[in-house]
Structure formats: structure tokens, C-alpha cells
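Recap from last week: sequence in, structure out.
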Amino acid sequence: MAALEKAGMYVSSFREPVPPGELIELYPEQEYHYRIPSFVVIRAKSI
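Predicted C-alpha cells:
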């Protein structure tokens, strides 16, 4: 986030989505993605 702020961006939202618990029950091998998300969603505006 520091790089975005340094570039003149205002970070208004930062989320790390995780799969729903039901998915882990169906596919236990995906448990890793429940603990460590594969991606982040950032909402930022130029200021």
C-alpha cells in the first residue's frame, strides 16, 4: 500500500477474500487458500 500512497493514491478499501467454509468441506485440499488468500482487492483513488 505504501507504493500506492507514494504514487498519490488514497486507499479507501483493502480486502483479502477467502473461500466460503462450505467450499473447504467439499474440497479440503483448498484449505491453504482459506488461510492465505490468493489475491487482494484494493479500492484506491488518485488525490
